């Protein structure tokens, strides 16, 4: 049995579209507290550690299941950006990212019986164009409350793609789940057909 330690609609859709049968459940992990308690974590380590915490939490509640944990962080240098709290916070983040290149780091892990058995992280580089303040306000009007559902306040599978000059990296990594390496691992452990 496969359990996804996430209620992310995007991650669920990726797994469903890949033909996986799974159940999804919300992990009981306070991400902000973990990050605050570990200021020495670099962005890649943060993504992996958060994915591990989610997978272990859910794995302890689902004996013998293979639990997939995932997390994504947006890094600008050593700074980490989370999901915006509200429209004003989203505006602030997008102004800071405007005209610059940032990294989206997505981590995925598999846990079994409360222990991590595999972990992987991947990175994509995205360069935002130097859009006008008028465009930014129009974008925020268009996406509304959706601005609080993704790191950085955008989704490239929607209007957020208009914020960018260039995008380099795996599409699934950008969406928040390095899917191809995950599928390879699930085949290697015999959880899906090889």
TrEMBL record:
Task of the protein: Nucleoside triphosphate pyrophosphatase. May have a dual role in cell division arrest and in preventing the incorporation of modified nucleotides into cellular nucleic acids.
Organism: Aestuariivirga litoralis
Reactions catalysed, as given in the entry: a 2'-deoxyribonucleoside 5'-triphosphate + H2O = a 2'-deoxyribonucleoside 5'-phosphate + diphosphate + H(+); a ribonucleoside 5'-triphosphate + H2O = a ribonucleoside 5'-phosphate + diphosphate + H(+)
Similarity annotation: Belongs to the Maf family.
NCBIfam families with a match to the protein in the record: maf
EC number: 3.6.1.9
Pfam families assigned: Maf (PF02545)
Active-site residues, record numbering mapped to chain: 71 (proton acceptor)
GO MF, any single term: nucleoside triphosphate diphosphatase activity
Keywords: Cytoplasm, Hydrolase, Nucleotide metabolism
Main location: cytoplasm
Known cofactor(s): a divalent metal cation
Gene Ontology cellular component terms for the protein in this record: cytoplasm
Protein's UniProt name: Nucleoside triphosphate pyrophosphatase
Any single biological process term in GO: nucleotide metabolic process
CDD domains recorded: Maf
Cell location: Cytoplasm
């Amino acid at each position: 049995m496969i359990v996804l330690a996430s209620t992310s609609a995007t991650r669920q859709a990726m797994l469903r579209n890949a033909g996986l049968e799974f159940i999804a459940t919300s992990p009981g992990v306070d991400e902000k507290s973990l990050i605050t308690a570990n200021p020495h974590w670099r962005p890649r380590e943060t993504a992996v550690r958060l994915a591990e915490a989610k997978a272990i939490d859910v794995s302890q509640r689902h004996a013998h299941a293979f639990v997939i944990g995932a997390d994504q962080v947006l890094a600008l240098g050593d700074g980490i950006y989370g999901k915006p709290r509200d429209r004003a916070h989203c505006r602030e983040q997008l102004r800071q990212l405007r005209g610059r290149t940032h990294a989206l780091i997505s981590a995925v892990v598999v846990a079994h019986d409360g222990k991590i058995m595999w972990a992987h992280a991947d990175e994509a580089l995205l360069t935002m164009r130097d859009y006008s303040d008028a465009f930014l306000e129009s974008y925020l009007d268009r996406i509304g409350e959706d601005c609080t559902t993704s790191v950085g306040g955008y989704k490239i599978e929607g209007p957020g793609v208009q914020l960018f000059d260039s995008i380099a990296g795996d599409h699934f990594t950008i969406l928040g789940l390095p899917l191809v390496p995950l599928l390879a691992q699930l085949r290697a452990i015999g959880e899906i057909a090889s």
